Structure to design on (72 residues):
């Protein structure tokens, strides 16, 4: 299942998760600051939310020169 009609706030990439019986496709947003990164932050959402929940937080972290990873 994919959110094909869903608009994410940042560019989305995909990662294949391979299990013995199936392969799943996981969406994620990997954001890099324009300057040198002070560090990296992973933002995890809970059930019934998507990575878009973190749009404002990710924006603020990028402005503060943090690299941000948001798995969906």
């Amino acid at each position: 299942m994919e959110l094909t009609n869903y608009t994410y706030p940042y560019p989305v990439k995909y990662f294949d998760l391979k299990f013995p019986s199936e392969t799943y496709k996981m969406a994620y947003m990997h954001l890099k600051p324009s300057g040198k990164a002070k560090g990296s932050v992973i933002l995890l959402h809970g059930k019934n939310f998507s990575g878009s929940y973190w749009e404002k937080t990710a924006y603020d972290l990028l402005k503060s020169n943090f690299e941000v990873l948001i798995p969906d």
User: Anything to note?
Assistant: The radius of gyration is 13 Å. Helices lie at 55-63.
